[in-house]
DNA sequence: TAATTGACACCTAGGTGTTAAAGT
DNA sequence: ACTTTAACACCTAGGTGTCAATTA
């Protein structure tokens, strides 16, 4: 049985500043439901509408960035890129991939976990750890098994190297690109008029996201 | 500049028995010179002959298996396979690959390193660690930039999936395969008439190697 | 009707030996 | 004369959207 299995694209990429160089950290990603609703896409309005109550929630899993644990030193220099995380709609998935319900809205979250001298990159139970969670509302997306909006399709074909084979026939026009951007801007405006700034403990730490990449974030299932 | 860069094939694969299930270990691989000589290949005799003193030694690097650290539990169940380790003849290599001199003889070594609660998979200085080294003389090989013996070429084409494209024209005949095996058996007989058994600390630990794979071990540079 | 699946062609990414050319 | 390099075709491995068929 072939599961529906995809990477996220665009990739969630996150950078950290102001953390302790000699401290060790794990960087985790999970994806949680935004609300308790199921959605459908209204083609004539080009927008998502509520279509009832949410399906039974999928098991919430956590993805540890494979380069974890990082030293604070490394985190200051590198952008942490979650290009390899995989999403599936198979509730029975045995490979530890993140499980989502199609046609539901999701919020990716980043967890920065302090690692004592013990412990590997793995974090079995977050509740026992000292950590901080960062949320970027502009990364909210709706999970799908097939694209609902052709602008999204075109945007992904334009920007994902693996879809290069479809580029000739579907380049975004200038007009489409502008339409796209205004749609996204509008969504962000209503959701998050003020950009949240996050501090890590008492060390005046900021987390900034590669906003350009994230602005286009729409992952299919 | 493209460095000469190859994986080892056949792969060094090692399994452990009798170790502590709850202890954490790193598994390392390095490759050290067997002697202080440089070799040349005598085609008419199909054997390696001493061709003078060794060239200045390449920097000796250590490759940590990327799945390190392992728990003893994992090590009991899984075979540790070093398929991803890369060899180069570029002394200036900046990627941390293992550096060898062509036309010299080498001995791969496996290091099993006890990891305290601290520390990641990385081991910066082996001398500060509690570890045990395992050596299998049958894995000795001569580094080359081009194959000297066509039986080796054919054997690798026959057994490496990535060389599938050359198989039709160069399958090993029954005779060639037998010749090959007797050559290898002879070499092993002279080098290592008795199979070494290794204990780890005082815990009655044995290390056994996937002998079949290793018997054919000849890696080019 | 709307959503999901699976076979497919087309890519990226990278591991092979071959061969002719270059290096020593 | 021997060794090394670099471009190449041919693979493995796996990430894309498409489209027709299937599911619910």
From TrEMBL, chains A, B:
Subcellular location(s) of the protein: Nucleus
Residues of the full protein shown: 69 to 289 of 397
Boundaries of every T-box domain copy: 7-168
Name under which the protein is recorded: T-box domain-containing protein
GO biological process: cell fate specification; heart development; positive regulation of DNA-templated transcription
GO CC aspect terms: chromatin; nucleus
Phylogenetic lineage: Eukaryota, Metazoa, Ecdysozoa, Arthropoda, Hexapoda
Chief subcellular location: nucleus
Keywords: DNA-binding, Nucleus, Transcription, Transcription regulation
One example GO MF annotation: RNA polymerase II cis-regulatory region sequence-specific DNA binding
